[in-house]
């Protein structure tokens, strides 16, 4: 007689065991194997479910601002109708850049209320400096702006402060501590700057360079780069200058600048040679560091604000009805 046993086990199908008379049941090994397979599958499913519930890894974060080299931006400025407008625009660009210290230098005997108030409201880390351009170096009535170099005394005043020679009239009074990692950039108040430019220059080791748009009568001026090295310059005016670059087209590593205490701008330099008067003390042209995709991207523009026409204002002033001078423009 044939005995039939049916087992209910956790397998995909019922398990039938056919036994002859007096035949012992040897079903346990295959049942154990089937149960182990199911256990392994359940374990794998649990692992996959846990992976799905686990949050994705956080993306790589940029360095904390505290470990970034500081960018010291030196800006000479002078009193004129558009001064505040220019400085507001520049300050709002700089406010987008982390780890930045603005050195704003007035062409005056001391700090003016307009610039002092603007700096206090900017939210930036700043140092306020002031030095008057000597009369012999100032533009005379009717002279074009290119006849004499401008901002020389003011830029040199900022370099003096960085070197620990004091002179601050507002903001941060103490210069960078020895060993501070940083980069120095000369940013005139009438240019237009992309935020990207500042990140390009931040890790400068010596002197870095890039193109400048709308300058020198060209769409852009800048270094020519081959195999990652500067081999010449795209410029139309006096291409044989030692460094035919615009003031907005280079940055200097702070340690290099501090290691060359006599490097400064020369107010007596010939036209177009002001930048060379500083850079010649700091670097050989072949060692310049090209930035901005090997100098193929323009990230700063040599823009100029049109001088406002004040005919109506002058007419009203003659009538005693001019704009309220207490309203700051």
TrEMBL record:
One of its GO terms (molecular function) is metal ion binding. Pathway: Protein modification; protein glycosylation. It holds the Pfam family Glyco_transf_43. Signal peptide: none annotated. The record marks 221, 312 as: Interaction with galactose moiety of substrate glycoprotein. Glycans are attached at residue 294. It catalyses: 3-O-(beta-D-galactosyl-(1->3)-beta-D-galactosyl-(1->4)-beta-D-xylosyl)-L-seryl-[protein] + UDP-alpha-D-glucuronate = 3-O-(beta-D-GlcA-(1->3)-beta-D-Gal-(1->3)-beta-D-Gal-(1->4)-beta-D-Xyl)-L-seryl-[protein] + UDP + H(+). The keyword Membrane applies. Keywords: Disulfide bond, Glycoprotein, Golgi apparatus, Manganese, Membrane, Metal-binding, Signal-anchor, Transferase, Transmembrane, Transmembrane helix. UDP-alpha-D-glucuronate binds at residues 76-78, 107, 150, 155, 188-190, 302-304. Its cofactor is Mn(2+). It is an enzyme of class 2 (transferase). Residues 306-329 are annotated as: Disordered. It is a single-pass type II membrane protein. It is found in: Golgi apparatus membrane; Golgi apparatus, cis-Golgi network; Membrane. The keyword Transferase applies. Mn(2+) binds at residue 190. Its EC number is 2.4.1.135. One of its GO terms (cellular component) is Golgi membrane. The active site is at 275 (proton donor/acceptor). Its main location: Golgi. Residues 306-316 have a biased composition (Basic and acidic residues). Belongs to the glycosyltransferase 43 family. Homodimer; disulfide-linked. Interacts with PXYLP1; the interaction increases the 2-phosphoxylose phosphatase activity of PXYLP1 during completion of linkage region formation in a B3GAT3-mediated manner. This is Galactosylgalactosylxylosylprotein 3-beta-glucuronosyltransferase. It comes from Dipodomys ordii (Ord's kangaroo rat). The lineage of its organism: Eukaryota, Metazoa, Chordata, Craniata, Vertebrata. The gene is B3gat3.
């Amino acid at each position: 007689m044939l005995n039939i046993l049916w087992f209910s086990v956790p397998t995909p199908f019922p398990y039938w065991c056919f036994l002859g008379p007096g035949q012992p049941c040897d079903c346990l090994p295959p049942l154990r194997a089937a149960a182990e397979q199911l256990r392994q599958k359940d374990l794998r499913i649990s692992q996959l479910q846990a992976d799905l519930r686990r949050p994705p890894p956080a993306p790589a974060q940029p360095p904390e601002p505290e470990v970034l080299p500081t960018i010291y931006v030196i800006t000479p400025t002078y009193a004129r109708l558009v001064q505040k407008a220019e400085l507001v625009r520049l300050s709002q660009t700089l406010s987008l850049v982390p780890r930045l210290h603005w050195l704003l230098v007035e062409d005056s005997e001391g700090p003016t209320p307009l610039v002092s108030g603007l700096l206090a409201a900017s939210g930036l880390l700043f140092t306020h400096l002031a030095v008057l351009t000597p009369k012999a170096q100032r533009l005379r009535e009717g002279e074009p702006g290119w006849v004499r170099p401008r901002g020389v005394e003011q830029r040199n005043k900022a370099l003096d402060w960085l070197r620990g020679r004091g002179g601050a009239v507002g903001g941060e009074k103490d210069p960078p501590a020895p060993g501070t990692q940083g980069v120095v950039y000369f940013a005139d108040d009438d240019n237009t700057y992309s935020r990207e430019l500042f990140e390009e220059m931040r890790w400068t080791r010596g002197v870095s360079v890039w193109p400048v748009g709308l300058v020198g009568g060209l769409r852009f001026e800048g270094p020519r780069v081959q195999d990652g090295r500067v081999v010449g310059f795209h410029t139309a005016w006096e291409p044989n200058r030692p460094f035919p670059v615009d003031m907005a087209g280079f940055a200097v590593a702070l340690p290099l600048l501090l290691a060359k205490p006599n490097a400064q701008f020369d107010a007596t330099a010939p036209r177009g040679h002001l930048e060379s008067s500083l850079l010649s003390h700091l670097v050989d042209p072949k060692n310049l560091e090209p930035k901005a995709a090997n100098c193929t991207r323009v990230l700063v523009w040599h823009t100029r604000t049109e001088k406002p026409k004040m005919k109506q204002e002058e007419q009203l002033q003659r009538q005693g009805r001019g704009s309220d001078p207490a309203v700051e423009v």
